[in-house]
């Protein structure tokens, strides 16, 4: 370190020199956890016996199955973050099924508090040895809450609760005393507990002799109404009240009268919805307006939440770095340079994802970040009429790790089971046209602005309205398969392809995103690279409450062309691909006026406007997206006639983004969406059909993407009456042959598809095996090609309806067409649970041309809406709609 020459630092020969070393944590935080703060967090952890807590009815089924795992660190067991280093002696995750101890700490961390001199002395006083059952749990005893307890039973079998509930999981007397020790180490004192050692005083406090001194002050706890969070919040509040002497003793019974813990604005137990307290807990406009909160998170399958939720740069500017934000991701304002080092390594250093996040999780669990309690194994309820299992079909789509939870997406796949009738008519799917799907949300909303939304319920409508460049196959999880160790099927959703290159000399990664040509916002404006750059840059500059961590590494975003985006990021994080690919793409032409317009490069002039808490884009009718469901068809025009917003309050008045109980959000499916809709033949964006119908026909070899082979096959049939390629819907002439209109339609979809980069394997004509791994439930990747029939579509001339289909692989040409008029009534037609009401079927003639081409012709009454049903070999295979003015 020192030199004896002329180069600094110099320490002359024979001298003794002292140096002070500083650690570079690679963190901008100027703050760190205090010794007192760490001690208080450890004290609170001792107040909940997590293994016993899981036995309550709120986490146990009627059959006695526990539907949760208790945790040592804030990483759900499904992520298996800690499995490679955890001890097997931990009581958490020893129960039930799954990967044992995947969220437990290592043995050294588990036993570390045994080395605390005061804890060691306490254990000796209790006449036992130090053998923690879990992190900060010295003894696991079945202690249950009660209205009152005898002093001798407190911490043994009973605990006095201020609430009316009797929850299991209260602390043992040893853990109560341990919590007291940590609170003394934090600087509190006792009164009436003697003047002995910390261990002696705290043994007395646990036994009801004296108590901690609250100095006449109170602490503020917000406990959620969630039946799984209410119990442990109550246990913490009751235990703190007991330790600080907020009890009465009468006739040998101890009653918890409260007084040290305030439940929000009340001194008696009170429980709160997210809507009631979101602006208190999640906003940092006012700091230190709460002390304890029973939080919960909807997490993914990877542990990068440890970076996004607790790195100091995401705590607004309150840790000394970061960007100003009213609703930061790191709302507890956890500032810890040592933690930042490990979380940053896990997020951004390739090859050390798990080791980095393991160390971050350990630091967070032991240095006052949060006290992890449990991860739930959530169960969801749905009507059976939506479930096609065990048969195949598109119905309920369960997202791995999320089930059918709010913000899980893929609602466009939902179709009712044909012919299903429930024993009770209340449980039938809604019949009629249009079909209605209803989803309930467990909590109210405060912000549905994409820049300020924070909860799963606020993201529920957003994820339906807005789209992203990538989507993850719901049956897979983890990093994208393109990343080291990745297993998730990341599908090019709004893109045809994407790639990343890394320059080690500059430490910069460059992503290239190639946009599809058939993506449009709900107001008909095409999505361009400028919209992508605007979304990325504004998420960083506003900053977005939820998406800021995803764009923290972004250096620049450039619209190379209208359909090519170049994003430059620092480092080579394995999370960069999904961080950028999963962002909502917002319309620049709608949001730019809100932020004062854009400067060169699609950056907002005043980006903070977007994240203003007074901005209500729902009420203003600004919710124009490009996703599968529509809120606003243009700014100020919504799905609810006569109002700008697509929300409605319980009293029927126009709603905004803050919705109370009984309110509703009305979204309509976007027929122009590139993945919609198999039962509609509606001209969209200059094409004679929906984008989906044209795209799937253009992909003639059915491998999942339109490529040169498809164009070559069509070109080879040019001028012929090929049954497949001579499509009257896209033809430029009425010759009945393959013409330039057919060829041009196919060419317009070049390089586009539905499942790329996962493609099927062509076999026979217009037939392919589907992409491996993407068809766990529904084997159909082309909805217009069920069985051995390809539905080309229909044309309506006057009152004559002509429907064309192609029989494949030598199958029978015996096809029946039924066309049901919808002029009213409530007749439920056989095999037709999609459209419901009808009066009669029309007689249609059938003609075959050669061995494959089938033409069905019907005379259609004027101004009639029809539902068309094609039946092959007695099985319904196609449903579509024909309107009064066309198909």
Mean pLDDT value:
88
Question: What is the terminal separation in angstroms?
Answer: 82 Å
Helix tally equals 20
Strand content: 15-25%
Identify the overall geometry: globular
What does the model show?
With 887 residues, the chain is α+β, with helices and mostly antiparallel strands. It has 20 helices and 34 strands. The strands form 13 sheets. Strands 7, 10, 11 and 12 form a four-stranded parallel beta sheet that branches. It has a four-stranded antiparallel beta sheet with strand order 16-17-19-18, with helices on one face. Helix 4 (117-125) runs antiparallel to helix 5 and helix 5 crosses helix 6 (198-206). The longest helix is centred in the first third of the chain and has 14 residues, at 230-243. The radius of gyration is 32 Å and the shape is globular.
């Amino acid at each position: 370190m020192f030199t004896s020459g002329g180069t600094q630092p110099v320490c002359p020969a024979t001298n003794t020199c002292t140096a002070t070393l500083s650690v570079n944590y690679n963190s901008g935080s100027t703050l760190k956890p205090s010794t007192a703060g760490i001690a208080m967090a450890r004290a609170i952890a001792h107040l909940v016996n997590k293994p016993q807590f899981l036995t309550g009815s709120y986490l146990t089924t009627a059959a006695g199955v526990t539907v949760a795992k208790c945790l040592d660190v804030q990483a759900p067991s499904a992520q298996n973050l800690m499995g490679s280093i955890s001890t097997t002696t931990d009581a958490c995750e020893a129960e039930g099924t799954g990967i044992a101890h995947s969220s437990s700490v290592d043995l050294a961390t588990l036993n570390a508090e045994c080395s605390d001199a005061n804890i060691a002395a306490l254990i000796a006083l209790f006449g036992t040895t130090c053998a923690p059952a879990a992190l900060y749990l010295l003894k696991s005893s079945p202690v249950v809450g009660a209205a009152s307890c005898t002093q001798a039973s407190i911490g043994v079998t009973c605990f006095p609760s201020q609430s009316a509930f009797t929850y299991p999981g209260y602390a043992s007397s040893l853990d109560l005393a341990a919590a007291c020790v940590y609170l003394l180490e934090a600087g509190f004192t006792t009164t009436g507990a003697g003047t002995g050692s910390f261990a002696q005083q705290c043994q007395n406090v646990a036994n009801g002799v004296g108590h901690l001194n609250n100095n006449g002050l109170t602490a503020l706890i917000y406990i959620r109404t969630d039946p799984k969070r209410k119990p442990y919040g109550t246990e913490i509040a009751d235990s703190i009240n007991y330790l600080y002497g907020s009890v009465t003793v009468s006739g040998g019974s101890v009653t918890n009268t409260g007084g040290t813990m305030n439940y929000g604005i009340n001194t008696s137990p009170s429980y709160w919805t997210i809507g009631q307290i979101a602006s208190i807990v999640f906003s940092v406009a006012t700091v230190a307006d709460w002390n304890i909160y029973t939080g919960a998170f909807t997490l993914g399958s990877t542990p990068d939440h440890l970076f996004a939720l607790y790195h100091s740069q995401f705590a607004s500017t309150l840790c000394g770095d970061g960007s100003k934000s009213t609703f930061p991701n790191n709302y507890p304002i956890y500032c810890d340079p040592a933690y930042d080092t490990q979380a940053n390594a896990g997020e951004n250093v390739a090859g050390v994802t798990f080791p980095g996040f393991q160390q971050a999780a350990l630091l967070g669990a032991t240095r006052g970040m949060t006290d992890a309690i449990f991860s739930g194994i959530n169960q969801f309820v749905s009507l059976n009429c939506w479930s096609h299992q065990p048969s195949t079909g598109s119905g309920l789509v369960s997202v791995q790790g999320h089930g059918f939870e709010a913000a899980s997406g893929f609602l466009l796949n939902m179709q009712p089971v044909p012919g299903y009738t429930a024993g009770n008519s209340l449980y039938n799917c809604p019949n009629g046209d249009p079909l209605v799907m209803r989803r309930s949300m467990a909590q109210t909303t405060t912000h549905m602005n994409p820049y300020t939304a924070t909860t799963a319920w606020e993201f529920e409508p957003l994820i339906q309205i807005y789209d992203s460049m990538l989507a993850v196959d719901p049956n897979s999880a983890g990093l994208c398969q393109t990343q080291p160790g990745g297993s998730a099927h990341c599908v090019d959703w709004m893109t045809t392809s994407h790639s990343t290159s890394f320059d080690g000399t500059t430490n910069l990664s460059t992503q290239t995103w190639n946009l599809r040509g058939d993506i449009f916002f709900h107001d008909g404006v095409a999505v361009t690279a400028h919209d992508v750059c605007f979304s990325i840059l504004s998420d960083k500059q506003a900053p977005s409450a939820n998406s800021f961590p995803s764009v923290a590494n972004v250096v620049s975003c450039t619209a190379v062309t209208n359909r090519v985006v170049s994003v430059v990021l620092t480092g080579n994080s394995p999370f960069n691909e999904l961080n950028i690919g999963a962002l909502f793409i917002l319309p620049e032409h709608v949001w730019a006026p809100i932020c004062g317009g854009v400067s060169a490069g699609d950056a907002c002039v005043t980006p903070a406007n977007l994240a203003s808490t007074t901005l209500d884009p729902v009420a203003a009718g600004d919710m124009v997206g490009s996703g599968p469901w529509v809120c606003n068809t243009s700014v100020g025009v919504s799905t609810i006639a006569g109002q700008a917003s697509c929300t409605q309050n319980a009293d029927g008045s126009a709603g905004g983004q803050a919705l109370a109980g009984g309110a509703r959000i009305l979204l309509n499916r976007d027929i122009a969406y590139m993945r919609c809709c198999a039962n509609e033949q509606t001209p969209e964006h200059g094409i004679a059909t929906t984008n989906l119908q044209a795209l799937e026909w253009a992909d003639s070899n059915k491998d999942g993407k339109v490529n040169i082979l498809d164009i070559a096959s069509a070109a080879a049939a040019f001028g012929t009456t090929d049954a497949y390629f001579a499509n009257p819907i896209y033809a430029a002439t009425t010759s009945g042959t393959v013409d330039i209109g057919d060829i041009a339609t196919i060419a317009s979809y070049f390089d586009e598809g539905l499942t790329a980069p996962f493609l099927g394997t062509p076999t026979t004509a217009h037939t392919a095996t589907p992409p491996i791994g993407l068809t766990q439930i529904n084997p159909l990747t082309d909805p217009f090609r069920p069985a051995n029939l390809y539905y080309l579509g229909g044309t309506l001339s006057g009152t004559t309806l002509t429907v064309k289909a192609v029989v494949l692989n030598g199958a029978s040409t015996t096809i029946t067409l039924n066309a049901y008029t919808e002029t009213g009534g409530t007749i439920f037609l056989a095999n037709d649970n999609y459209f419901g009401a009808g009066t009669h079927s029309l007689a249609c003639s059938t003609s075959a041309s050669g061995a494959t081409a089938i033409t069905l012709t019907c005379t259609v009454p004027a101004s009639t809406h029809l539902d068309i049903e094609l039946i092959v070999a007695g099985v319904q295979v196609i449903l579509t709609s024909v309107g009064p003015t066309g198909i």
